[in-house]
Amino acid sequence: AQSYPYRGGSIIDILLAGYNYPIDNFTRNPSQGFLVLLNNPAEVPQFMDNFIAIRPNSDVIVSIKPQKMDASSNLQTKYSPEKRRCYFPSERQLAYFTSYVQRNCKVECLTNYTLEECGCVRYYMPHTPGTKICDLSRQGCVIAAAEALTLGLIT
């Protein structure tokens, strides 16, 4: 029987090797070691959500608990997207992503709202060629747009 998620084995060993020079000049905070990001390959990475800090010369044991959400076959026909407050991949095509997952939808929603409200997007947001990238003068607008999404003021 197949299991989800697909496994390569019960234990994975990873050896991280870095350069031997001070990295304090390249980071916001004085730090040493590695930041390892765990991410679903179908989703846009959100660095601040899923990283593990690993100090030099240390062993780390990490437990990963994947989540999978399934829906009954009649849920899509019985309830409208407005009532269930989510979409199935066949109901919505994203402009910037090939896979419809909730995180990608939120990133695209924030991108579209930021562009609409501020006339630009942050450099890391998905965008088309020619889209203006926000500079520091638009920082207040960009932060307000992100807060509006976080607080549920936009849908």
From TrEMBL:
<dbReference type="InterPro" id="IPR001873">
    <property type="entry name" value="ENaC"/>
</dbReference>
<comment type="similarity">
    <text>Belongs to the amiloride-sensitive sodium channel (TC 1.A.6) family.</text>
</comment>
<keyword id="KW-0813">Transport</keyword>
<keyword id="KW-0915">Sodium</keyword>
<dbReference type="GO" id="GO:0005886">
    <property type="term" value="C:plasma membrane"/>
</dbReference>
<keyword id="KW-0812">Transmembrane</keyword>
<keyword id="KW-0894">Sodium channel</keyword>
<keyword id="KW-1133">Transmembrane helix</keyword>
<keyword id="KW-0472">Membrane</keyword>
<keyword id="KW-0739">Sodium transport</keyword>
<dbReference type="GO" id="GO:0015280">
    <property type="term" value="F:ligand-gated sodium channel activity"/>
</dbReference>
<dbReference type="Pfam" id="PF00858">
    <property type="entry name" value="ASC"/>
</dbReference>
<protein>
    <submittedName>
        <fullName>Uncharacterized protein</fullName>
    </submittedName>
</protein>
<keyword id="KW-0407">Ion channel</keyword>
<keyword id="KW-0406">Ion transport</keyword>
